[in-house]
Amino acid sequence: MQIHRRLLATSLIALWAATPALHAQPSFPTGPVTIVVPYGVGGGVDFFSRTVAVKMGEKLGQPVLVENKPGAGTAIAASDVARAKPDGQRVLIGDVSTFATNPTLYKKLIYDPAKDFTPVSLTGRMPYLLLVNPTVHPQKTLDEFLVAVRKAPPNSISYASAGPGGPGHLTSEMFVRAAGVQMVHVPYKGSGPALPDLLSGQIGVMFMDYGPARAHIASGKLRALAVASTKPIPELPNVPTMAASLPGFESWFWMGMVAPKGTPAPVVDKLRDAYAAALGDPATRQKLIEAGIEPLQSSGAEMDAFIRSEANRWGKVIKEAQIQLD
Q1: Domain with CATH 3.40.190.150 in the chain
Q2: Cβ burial 211-233 (10 Å sphere, 16+ → b, else e)
C-alpha cells in the first residue's frame, strides 16, 4: 500500500511539473499594457493608438498606455518591442515602413519583421492624396497637371516627402514612373516641417494622407487632385482616384499591431479581442473615420499574408528607384 502511495505521489509530481502553464502562467494582463508607437506625439499612428487605447483598456481591465519611440525609420520602436518579454504587456503599432519596406530599404536592420513578431491585427489605413499648392500649380485635374509636368523642363518641378524611403517618398517614386514624368525629390524630417513650405508655395507638390491636410483642403490653400485608393473616399467624394488616369495606381499608409515573437496564443487572442471591442465602440470608430482613417481588423494569418504581399510590391519600387538607406 505504501509503495502504491509513493508511486501515486511521484506520478502527480511529474504531471504537475510537465504542465507549467497550469500553475506558473499568470493571467494576462498583469498590469498596464503599453502600445509602443514609432513616431512622435501628434502623428497619425499616435492619434490612432491613443484613440483605441481607452476602450482596449476597458476590455482588458487594465490601462493601455501609449509610449512614443520615434527614429531610424520606425526601427527604434520595432527593435524595442522585438526584444520585449513575450507576455503581451508591450506591443507595437507599426506601419508599412516597419513591416514591408524597411527590409529592402536598409542594408542593415536591427530587427526582423518576419521573425521577431507575432501578428495581432491590421488596424487601419489611409489613402494618399496627391496635393498641390494651387498658386504654384493652378491645374484643377490630375490630367491637366500631368500635361503641365510633361511640358515643363526636366527636373524643374519638385515634390516634398516626409523623409527619404518613407511611404510618401515611395508613393511619389511610383507616381513619376507610372506617369512618365521627371520631378525632383525634396525630403523633409516629417510631414510637419514639410506642410508649411507646401502651404507657402516654397514647394508645390506632395503626397499626404487626409488627416493633416483636411483643414487646408477645406480652406482652399491646398488642392487634392486625386486619391490613391480604389474608389473616391467619403470625405472627398468629388476627388477622383489616381487609377482613373493611371490604371492600377494604389497607395495606402497602413498600420498593424504586433506582439513579440513567442507571445502565447491566448494572450494574442485577448489583445485582438480588446482591439475589436475598441472598434465596436461607435464613438471611437467615428473619431477615426473623421480623421480620414479606415479602421481595419484581421486575423494574424491575414496580416502576415498582407505584409508579404506589400513587401513584394514595394520592394520592386525601391529597387527600380535604386533607393538605399544606411
Answers
A1: 29-126+254-321
A2: bbbbebbeeebbbbbbbbbeebb
DSSP notation for 194-237 = HHHHHHHTSS-EEEEEHHHHHHHHHHTSSEEEEESSSS--TTST
Burial class (CB in 10 A: 0-12, 13-18, 19+), 189: exposed
The domain made up of 127-244 has a fold known as: D-Maltodextrin-Binding Protein; domain 2 (3.40.190)
8 A C-beta contact, residue 131 and residue 213: yes
| Contact in structure between 57 and 273 (CB atoms under 8 Å) | no
Element (H, E) at 252: strand 252-260
Distance CA(47)–CA(59), nearest Å, equals 20
The upper half-sphere exposure of residue 315, i.e. CA atoms within 13 Å in the direction of its Cβ, equals: 10
Cross-strand partners of 255: 95, 124
Q: What are phi and psi of 219, to 5 degrees?
A: -80, -15
Question: Quick check: helix, strand or coil at residue 305?
Answer: helix
CA 10 vs. chain centroid, Å, equals 53
Task: Delimit the CATH 3.40.190.10 region(s) of the chain.
Answer: 127-244
Give the largest Cα separation in the chain, rounded: 100
Contact of 49 with 93, CB cutoff 8 Å: yes
CATH topology of domain 29-126+254-321: D-Maltodextrin-Binding Protein; domain 2 (3.40.190)
Query: Facing residues of 161 across strands?
Result: 187
What's the distance, CA 306 to chain centroid?
A: 12
**Rounded to two decimals, what is the model's pTM?**
0.86
Phi/psi of residue 145, nearest 5 degrees: -65, -40
pLDDT along the chain (326 residues), means of 10: 46 46 67 95 91 98 96 94 98 97 94 97 96 97 96 92 92 95 91 92 94 92 97 93 96 97 98 98 95 94 97 94 89
